[in-house]
Amino acid sequence: MTDANDPSDINIRAARVVDFEAIAALMSQPGIRSGTLRQPFATPEQTRKWLESLSDVSVVIVAERADRILGMAGLHRSKGRRHHSAALGISVDDDHRGEGIGKSLLTALIDAADNWLGISRIELTVFTDNEPAIALYRKAGFEMEGTHRAYALRNGVLADVFAMARIREPAAPKAA
């Protein structure tokens, strides 16, 4: 029997366009909608179009267990003089929080940023009352940079978010 709190049975892989229905269902969950800037009642077709429109500078991954998508995360690289930075977003199934899924997704994206993409600044916003996410981000090296007041409408009230970032200094070249 699988331990729900053991993330070793989680498969992290690239999101695919064929995942659109599962991703739409995931992203429509009340907890995810409340914790993100996603609009309510997005259709699977809108999600499909979004997946099809992702650029080559975005990395979008899913976490699945037994062929069921339980989480999604993305790293969206900036352009021009901000090419060294990327915005991060993570969503985990309402019924599977606290099982290491968010940590697995975050770890995979940080690895991609550090070791494959040369991204030295990862930034995000998180609602100020999302203590589990804030704790996860802090453990991964993210630091508070400020508070955006009245940032987004959530449940009929303008809610605040924290701006957080993880900055990795580029490694010095190895001596020959």
UniProtKB/TrEMBL annotation:
Pfam families: Acetyltransf_1
Protein name in UniProt: GNAT family N-acetyltransferase
Annotated EC: 2.3.1.-
InterPro entries the record matches: Acyl_CoA_acyltransferase, Bact_Acetyltransf, GNAT_dom
The keyword Transmembrane helix belongs to this UniProt entry's keyword annotation: no
GO MF assignments: acyltransferase activity
Organism from which the protein derives: Ensifer adhaerens
Keywords: Acyltransferase, Transferase
Top-level division of the source organism's lineage: Bacteria
N-acetyltransferase domain boundaries: 10-169
